[in-house]
Amino acid sequence: MSLSRSVFRTLPLAAAVVMAFAGGAQAQSLMEMYDAARGYDATFISAKAQFEANLAKANQTLGGILPNIALSASATRTYFDLRYDSGLQPPGFVNPRLYGTGVAGVTLVQPIYRPAAWAAYRQGGRLLEQAAAQYEAAEQDLLVRVSQAYFDVLTSEDSLASVQAQKSAVGEQLASAKRNFEVGTATITGVRDAQARFDLTTAQEIAAENDLRIKRLALDLAVGMSNAKPKRLADSSKLIPPPTENVDGWISQAEAASPAVRQAKLNWEVATLEVDRATAGHKPTVDAQISYSGVRNIGGTSNTTTSTTILDNHVFSPSAAIVLNMPIFAGLTTMYRVKETVALEDKARSDYENARRNTAQATRTAYFGLVAGLSQVKAYEAAEASTQSALDANKLGYSVGVNINIDVLNSQSQLYQTKRDLAKARYDVLVGNLKLRQAAGTLTPADLQPINDLLAP
Asked: Structurally, how many domains does the chain consist of?
């Protein structure tokens, strides 16, 4: 029996990726793409503008407790025509005539006791913290979205390279089966099995190419680049270390630092202060008021023809007052406003509790997902070695006539599927680490650096 069958060799996945995607354009690191996204991503820019608007809105509450100064001025021109029934006018009296009156004044009002204004001022402090938490959440969301898009491209590249390597190996197997059939050492079944597997891998290659195209477009959209090329891992065997704290420690951290929990808690505090503002509608207000005004007559008045000038002492009239305003009845508006705010406070309290529960659950999910992912990587690494050994054994068995063609094809398919799953599991671990920190509320741009250090220079 002629042993003319060739010994097949699989193309290493890393080599296939380098051959398939080596291009003239320089690849960008994860940090570079994140920096680009900060200046391009519309969602993040919108969140930044909202943050600035919230800061300005929070500072508006100062107006209720700081002094208010107003300048007022008016000018009046009067035509005076007095007619007596007897037709006789007093001696020296000029009639008709025009005269003018100018009035100017400055008024300062300093709130002394305004419960509603002070409650609004305390709300402003919470609104400032809310704005910071919202911006922090937007920044963390951008970090995860860019990282996910980055590693989605790498996953698709690995998947396509694996399919192409499998197609090349199946093509060699198909050619060998045809040669063996021609010399009578194999049946037509082996040829048809190899042809069917080759056609299947061709279809998988088309799907993988389309998936990579879509993932690249998504990355371009996320970072604002054209044909963005992410750097690959320098050493795929090195990943981030497993979390050192247990899940309860991460949950405690999430309940204290998560932007979602902080926003819900601050919203509850704002709702509580809103109850104070509504209740203040039943309370009096006290203001200090100082005014300094002057009146100047040009052409006299209705009783005299003498003009006043700025040198006249009686032109200016300074005054000071304490103004008390005591509400008595507001048509039940205040009473129902208090009821409304109390109900909204209960709602805010429930929303806060719901945010705590959801954050705790998200943290558990992210934690166990990361731990399982790290274990899964080790299992896939062991499976890769096992499937490679199985493929080598099947090839040897096929070469000596012990195994049939379908055994080799199945082993090849299993090996490349394992390689794809292993590559994806590694990327999922890196993104999962970021998602865990996002759930715990501790994710910052600095957390990208350890991942960036794993990339090829």
From this structure: 2
Give yes or no for a contact between 194 and 173, defined as CB atoms under 8 angstroms apart.
yes
Q: How far is CA 407 from CA 5, 195, 245, 326, 330, in A?
A: 15, 14, 46, 94, 89
Per-residue pLDDT tens digits for 259-285:
999 999 999 999 999 999 999 999 999
**Residue 98, phi then psi, degrees to nearest 5:** -110, 140
Q: Are residues 249 and 345 in the same domain?
A: yes
pLDDT class for 301, splitting at 50, 70, 90?
A: low
* Same structural domain, 175 and 212: yes
Residues 94 and 237 in one domain: no
Closest CA to 438 of 258, 263, 261: 258
Q: Do 302 and 343 have their domain in common?
A: no
CA distance 146 to 41: 10
Residue 7: the pLDDT is 34
Q: Is there a single domain that holds both residue 137 and residue 193?
A: yes
Q: Are both 198 and 300 inside the same structural domain?
A: no
User: Which has the minimum average pLDDT: 82-96, 111-125, 341-355, 434-448?
Assistant: 82-96
CB 451 within 8 A of CB 240: yes
Give 113's strand partners.
286
Report if residue 10 sits inside a domain. Answer: no
53 in the same domain as 131: yes
Q: At what angle do helices 115-182 and 42-59 cross, to 10 degrees?
A: 170
Extract long-range pairs of 19-23: CB within 8 Å, 24+ residues apart: 20/157, 20/160, 20/161, 20/164, 21/157, 21/161, 21/229, 23/229
Q: Is the peptide bond before 96 cis (omega within 30 degrees of 0)?
A: yes
Q: How far apart are CA 338 and CA 277, in angstroms?
A: 9
- Residue 232 tokens read as 């690959």
The domain of 294 spans: 68-113+285-325
Q: Does residue 18 lie in a domain region?
A: no
Burial 389-419 (b: 16+ CB within 10 A, else e): eebbebbeebbeeebbbbbbbebbbbbbebb
Say how far apart CA 166 and CA 159 lie, in whole Å.
10
**How far apart are alpha carbons 395 and 363 in whole angstroms?**
47
In a domain, 352, yes or no: yes
* Rounded-to-integer distance, Cα 145 and Cα 14, Å: 26
When pLDDT is cut at 50, 70 and 90, the band that residue 2 belongs to is very low
- Residues 77, 182, single domain; the answer is no
Residue pair 257/443 in contact (Cβ under 8 Å)? The answer is: no
Task: Examine the fold and report which residue of 264, 298, 325 is the final residue of a domain before the chain moves on.
Answer: 325
- What are the tens digits of pLDDT across the range 215-233? 999 999 999 988 899 999 9
Q: In one letter, which amino acid is 277?
A: R
Supply the CATH number for residue 205's domain.
Answer: 1.20.1600.10
Return the pLDDT at 29.
92
